[in-house]
């Protein structure tokens, strides 16, 4: 499922360093704005302990994890919505993503320039989000002009969309994000069809310095946490440069690193998992001697759609699904035992797949 998270922020906040850590790739991260001119893509495995627990039971020839796709987008600056700093190009790249990872600089380092000359995370957030909002207003105004012409023809959907666009212009012009605009359930898809930037789900990454991470302290930590909490959003604090170092180490060396910084696991694991949740995704498993694999579907999908994630023929010829729960298998350690206990269920086309379901699909084409 090709859903991407775009990594954004001001120049020199640690976006490319975070991306490098996520993908163990080598996107340049030099100390000047717009080093990353073209978006860089990385596909990252979803860390999921359940997959490896299942592999321990089935001992398959192959184990395959679900993935999350990240795009490293160059630094936005004030005036991006008017084309400043290659702004139009970067904003169009953000439009192609399903969710936004907003990296905010919390570290002090005189050797790495800040575009405004001082570290102020909340101010930085407001610069980026103002640019996204201004870009949305411009898109809405252009859409309104087109709809004004075609809505007169009498198309009901166009008239409804024109009304929604009009309301959104007023909403955004008062400084509010599109995602806070309340709309009837039946019109949500019309709103989504506009692909507005401030309608995208967002996760914040507070990029701390090494000393701050060691001391679990930063003068920005509490104020930034409170600010993000008031927006009903989530922030993850980490040190991107340390995460990049950890990502290049072998397992034994990583454990030494974790002990030194008092970490239980890479901060990246939480970033990847939170990004996956941000995209509204969940996983189900297929299990056997050949392969144990986790598959990605949207939350709330029905069984035939889940079958289609494996192969379109399976969705087209769907008959039924045999389903058992991951927790049941871990408890009893055997599919045969689950059959004896009646814990393997036969489900039809209207079954809503749950996160962690283990499924065998039956189909005929």
Give a short summary of the structure.
This protein has 365 residues and is α/β, with parallel strands linked by helices.
Low-confidence stretches: 29-37
Mean pLDDT: 86
* Biggest sheet overview: 6 strands, mixed
Element order: H for helix, E for strand: EHEHEEHEHHHEHHEHHHEEHHEHHEE
SS-derived structural category: alpha/beta
Strands side by side in the biggest sheet = 2-4-1-5-6-7
* Count of individual beta strands: 12
Strand content: 15-25%
Rg on CA atoms, Å: 23 Å
Helix count, DSSP H or I runs of 4 or more residues: 15
Q: How far apart lie the N and C ends?
A: 23 Å
Form type: flat
Helical content, roughly? 40-55%
Topology (SSEs and partners):
Layout: E1 4-8, H1 15-23, E2 40-45, H2 49-58, E3 62-64, E4 67-72, H3 87-95, E5 99-105, H4 121-150, H5 156-173, H6 188-192, E6 202-207, H7 210-215, H8 221-230, E7 234-238, H9 240-247, H10 251-260, H11 267-278, E8 281-286, E9 291-298, H12 303-310, H13 312-316, E10 318-325, H14 326-332, H15 335-340, E11 345-347, E12 357-363
Q: Mind explaining what this structure looks like?
A:
There is one protein chain. The protein is α/β, with parallel strands linked by helices and 365 residues long. It has 15 helices and twelve strands. A six-stranded mixed sheet has the order 2-4-1-5-6-7, with helices on both faces. Helix 1 packs parallel to helix 9 and helix 4 packs antiparallel against helix 5. The radius of gyration is 23 Å and the shape is flat. The two termini are 23 Å apart.
